[in-house]
Write a structure and sequence with these properties.
387 residues, three-stranded antiparallel beta sheet, zinc-finger, Herpes Virus-1, 15 helices, two-stranded antiparallel sheet
């Protein structure tokens, strides 16, 4: 979608509207001036003017107005504006086609949808908006989720202000769980504070901090702590420090991202908002759906059949960022594999779903031909694959 071209088209319409307004005002001012001049002439002679003179003055006014041609000028100006206004919606319509035809009526649990959207707002830190949505929809509060994300944003706000205390409190409270997960957040957090002292040239403060917070971690992270001690020698000349990766400013952003991931993991939430991912995936798949809808719309019978399908008749390719786990779709039936219909590996190394394999073998032990190569196999020779 070329948003820049839309802006250019809009600016063209806006410019045309300004020109039309300016032209209209100019014509109106010309007419008004001629009428005011005529009134002034009539008032100057008052009752001394004969009917013949009055008619002469009015005839002269009529000729001047005809020479100005106000109606023609206004019509021409308005015509150009109307042409621009008519073209603009058509232009926008080409870039933003009607997407309603790509959807169909599906029964959703409205309560679940409300909670998903509210949780999306909480995740973004928009707590008032999330509360307002649930309140106006008459939904119960999502107390646990709200409090978790509220705590997370307090920690993140602290990091933005270079205040590590909220993050340290959270890490301390979840020390055992983070340790079991192999997390190094505690070391990275103290490293950030240690480096801040070094950046400020406070070698003594950095050393005191290391004795208090880094020394207890040395038995698990000796090499990392030793590298930090070397950084003490480069106070005031950090550009020549051999461990520049430890003192890079980007470490704050990396730590914030990792802490967010760990936080979401501990509360059973994905790092990305499910609502945002759904919208993004829908936008990426929209061109394919629009093309499919246009093709199906010309075939009423197939259109009705498509509306009843539980899956799309064509694949919708999405980027790797939308692939969260391995799946297998049977190349014959186009059904996604499941526990009841698992993927089966044939001796020729082609894979089909079990139901497709049984149809090809006609539920018997006789051999059947692979749909993708000349090899033959029996159902007994096929082995189930596990993803």
């Amino acid at each position: 979608m070329d948003l820049w071209s839309i802006k250019e088209a809009f600016d063209h319409v806006a410019k045309r509207q300004k020109l039309s307004t300016s032209k209209s005002q100019e014509v109106i001012d010309q007419v008004r001036q001629e009428i005011e001049k005529t009134l002034a002439r009539i008032q100057s002679v008052d009752n001394l003017m004969s009917p013949v003179d009055m008619k002469s003055i009015l005839t002269e006014l009529k000729l001047k107005l005809n020479s100005i041609g106000p109606l023609q000028q206004l019509e021409e100006s308005q015509k150009e504006l109307i042409t621009s206004l008519t073209k603009y919606p058509k232009f926008v319509g080409k870039i933003f086609p009607d997407i309603s035809k790509t959807s169909r009526n599906v029964d959703f649990d409205i309560h679940t949808v409300n909670h998903i959207i509210a949780c999306h707002f909480y995740r973004q830190g928009m707590f008032d908006l999330g509360d307002c949505l649930l309140n106006e929809a008459g939904e119960p509060e999502v107390t646990g989720t709200r409090s978790h994300f509220s705590e997370m944003h307090q920690v993140l706000e602290g990091l933005r202000d270079r205040n590590l205390e909220p993050a340290l409190n959270w890490i301390t409270a979840n020390h055992e769980i983070l340790k079991q997960n192999g997390s190094t957040l505690e070391l990275k957090l103290h490293t950030l504070q240690f480096v801040e002292f070094i950046r400020k040239g406070s070698r003594i403060d950095a050393l005191d901090y290391a004795r208090t917070y880094l020394a207890p971690l040395a038995f698990l992270h000796m090499k990392d702590v030793q590298k930090l001690m070397v950084c003490l020698l480069y106070v005031g000349k950090l550009d020549s420090c051999p461990y520049a990766d430890l003192i890079a400013p980007t470490n704050w952003q990396k730590f914030t991202k990792e802490l967010t991931q760990q936080f979401c993991s501990l509360i059973g939430q994905s790092i990305r908002s499910p609502f945002a991912v759904t919208i993004a995936a829908g936008i990426e798949g929209l061109p394919t759906l629009l093309k499919l809808a246009n093709v199906m719309a010309a075939k009423k019978h197939e259109w009705q059949e498509w509306q009843k399908m539980k899956q799309l008749p064509v694949p919708v390719e999405l980027g790797s960022e939308f692939q969260f786990h391995s799946v297998f779709v049977c190349p014959v039936s186009r059904d996604q594999a499941s526990e009841e219909n698992p993927p089966m590996l044939m001796p020729c190394l082609h894979v089909l779903c079990k139901q497709s394999m049984m149809k090809l073998s006609k539920s018997s032990s006789r051999e059947f031909k692979c749909p993708y190569c000349p090899a033959e196999a029996s159902a007994a020779q096929c082995r189930q694959l596990y993803f």
